[in-house]
């Protein structure tokens, strides 16, 4: 296996030669073998281990094991303990996703702080195959079927072409020790179910099927790299970067052959898996949108706007005290006591200052908001008002309301509320003007 890896590195990963490598070492079979191999090949290495505190004592023992392994190799070791459950809860992630995010973020910190050139992990061919099958079962696009990337920026997976069986045989032959992760034996994650219950009978029923699947996967990877070259050309034609994300020009996209497939290839890296829904956006009305876990694709006339879903709810509330004459956030607005009213415009309204309670609050409109549109009898749901005004979703999202005691005084830029209007009995008139 040493010779095979040496050959693989010199042919496919020659950029690693002479570089300082930070090995992500769980203490499991694969990363232990990887550490052994890279040391044998005389790389300058360090081991980084994350203790995810998920398996109590076992997690601590894994950490001790990796520290001892590094000592026995006389190489640097870095360890960090994470409260994975807490992080997962705070960021609404699965435990596995949380552990993944934590570890790659931390590895990168160590890499930079201790000047390593690359981070290397012990992913192997069986991991790759499992990833392929998991993605296949999730209805992913071609990119998902290409499985684990051997090189992803500064993360490299040198033993990706090696099978678990090969790695295990090698470890036994060299009398290596490693830690068994008890959670790998539980068939609770899809990956473990595949590994434990699906792949073994599959292999038995169709000998050689694993090698064939790996061949298929190699073809897919090659095909995808061809497509990637073509896609980068398409990107320059149809995709434009904007401050909030990207726009995809529908007219230009439609001029190209295989429009739907192209659209899917452009959007699937952002987590979109509903091919049909994404394609339907091309013909749908403005305002229609499709979500992935992380992104939103919104139809707006002749473009699709791709934006990240922000975790935080946008903006809070902004207060206006009595006699305050100006606010600058979330936009500029002036408040002035005057004697005579003028014309109501989209940026100026007049209210009866005795009908309102301070502090006034400026906030984003919310589903369920109701107001009494100026000049109309009775109340109206804001959502219905926007629908009648035929506002697109992007416009709607930007709308603020001025409120008094949580009653809408002004749908800023659109319509004042009838309840606060100036009438015969008004003594104090307040002119409110949005100036930006
Ligand atoms: N706790 C950890 N600390 C450092 N690196 C880790 C850790 N868990 C996983 N890795 C890295 O990610 C790779 C793949 O993760 P996976 O969950 O398949 O590993 P594992 O089965 O726990 O361990 P191994 O792959 O070493 O047998 C590992 O080979 C290792 O390089």
Task: Write down the Rg.
Answer: 30 Å
Estimate the strand proportion: 15-25%
Q: Report the principal-axis shape.
A: elongated
- Considering the protein shown, what is the CATH homologous superfamily of the largest domain? HUPs
User: What is the domain tally?
Assistant: 3
What's the story with the biggest beta sheet? 6 strands, mixed
CATH topology category name of the largest domain:
Rossmann fold
Identify the CATH architecture of the largest domain: 3-Layer(aba) Sandwich
What is the terminal separation in angstroms? 68 Å
Arithmetic mean pLDDT: 90
Provide the fold topology.
Blueprint: H1 2-12, E1 20-24, H2 29-40, E2 44-51, H3 57-73, E3 76-81, H4 84-90, H5 95-113, E4 118-120, H6 125-137, H7 142-145, E5 151-152, E6 155-156, H8 164-173, H9 190-205, H10 209-238, E7 239-242, E8 245-249, H11 250-255, H12 259-267, H13 275-280, E9 289-291, E10 295-300, E11 303-308, E12 318-320, E13 326-327, E14 333-338, E15 348-352, E16 360-364, E17 370-371, E18 380-381, H14 382-388, H15 393-397, E19 400-404, E20 407-411, E21 415-416, E22 429-434
Helix pairs in contact: 4-5, 6-9
The chain binds adenosine-5'-triphosphate.
What would your notes on this structure say?
This protein has helices at 2-12, 29-40, 57-73, 84-90, 95-113, 125-137, 142-145, 164-173, 190-205, 209-238, 250-255, 259-267, 275-280, 382-388, 393-397; strands at 20-24, 44-51, 76-81, 118-120, 151-152, 155-156, 239-242, 245-249, 289-291, 295-300, 303-308, 318-320, 326-327, 333-338, 348-352, 360-364, 370-371, 380-381, 400-404, 407-411, 415-416, 429-434. The protein has 436 residues and is an alpha+beta fold. It folds into 3 domains: 2-214, 3-Layer(aba) Sandwich (Rossmann fold), CATH 3.40.50.620; 243-308, no CATH class; 318-434, Phenylalanyl-tRNA Synthetase, Chain B, domain 3 (3-Layer(bba) Sandwich). The strands form 5 sheets. A 6-stranded mixed β-sheet has the order 3-2-1-4-6-5, sandwiched between helices. A 5-stranded antiparallel β-sheet has the order 7-8-11-10-9. Helix 4 (84-90) packs across helix 5 and helix 6 (125-137) crosses helix 9 (190-205). The longest helix is centred in the middle third of the chain and has 30 residues, at 209-238. The protein is elongated, with a radius of gyration of 30 Å. The model has no long low-confidence stretch (mean pLDDT 90). The site of adenosine-5'-triphosphate has 18 residues, from helix 2 and strand 2.
């Amino acid at each position: 296996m040493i010779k095979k890896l040496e050959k693989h590195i010199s042919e496919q990963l020659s950029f690693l030669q002479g570089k300082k490598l930070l090995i992500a070492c769980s203490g499991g079979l694969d990363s232990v073998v990887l550490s052994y191999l890279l040391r044998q090949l005389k790389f300058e290495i360090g081991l980084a281990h994350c203790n995810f505190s998920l398996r109590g004592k076992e997690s601590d023992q894994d950490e001790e094991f990796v520290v001892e392994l590094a000592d026995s190799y006389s190489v640097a070791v870095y360890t960090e303990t994470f409260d994975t459950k807490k992080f997962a809860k705070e960021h609404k992630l699965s435990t596995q996703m949380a552990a993944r995010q934590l570890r790659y973020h931390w590895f990168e910190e160590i890499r930079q702080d201790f000047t390593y050139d690359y981070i290397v992990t012990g992913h192997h061919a069986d991991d790759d195959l499992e990833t392929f099958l998991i993605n296949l079962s999730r209805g992913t696009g071609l990119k998902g079927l290409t499985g684990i990337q051997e090189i992803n920026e500064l993360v490299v997976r040198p033993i990706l072409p090696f099978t678990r069986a090969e790695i295990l045989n090698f470890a036994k032959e060299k009398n290596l020790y490693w830690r068994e992760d008890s959670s790998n034996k539980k068939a609770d994650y899809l990956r473990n179910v595949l590994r434990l219950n699906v792949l073994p009978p599959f292999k038995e029923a169709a000998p050689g099927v694993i090698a064939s699947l790996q061949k298929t996967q190699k073809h897919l990877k090659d095909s995808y790299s061809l497509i990637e070259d073509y896609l980068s050309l398409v990107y320059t034609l149809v995709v434009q970067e904007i401050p909030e994300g990207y726009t995809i020009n529908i007219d230009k996209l439609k001029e190209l052959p295989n429009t739907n497939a192209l659209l899917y290839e452009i959007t699937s890296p952002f987590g979109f898996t509903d091919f049909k829904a994404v394609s339907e956006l091309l013909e749908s009305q403005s305002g229609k949108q499709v979500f992935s876990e992380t992104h939103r694709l919104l139809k707006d006339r002749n473009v699709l706007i791709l934006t990240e879903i922000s975790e935080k709810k946008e903006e809070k509330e902004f207060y206006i005290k009595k006699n305050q004459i100006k606010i600058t956030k979330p936009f500029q607005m002036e408040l002035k006591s005057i004697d005579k009213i003028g014309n109501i415009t989209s940026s100026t309204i007049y209210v009866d200052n005795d009908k309102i309670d301070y502090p006034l609050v400026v906030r984003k409109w919310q589903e369920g908001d109701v107001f009494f549109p100026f000049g109309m009898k009775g109340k109206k749901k804001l959502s219905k008002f926007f629908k009648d005004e035929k506002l697109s979703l992007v416009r709607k999202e930007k709308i603020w309301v001025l409120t008094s005691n949580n009653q809408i005084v002004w749908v800023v830029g659109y319509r004042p509320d009838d309840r606060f209007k100036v009438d015969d009995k008004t003594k104090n008139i307040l002119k409110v003007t949005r100036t930006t």
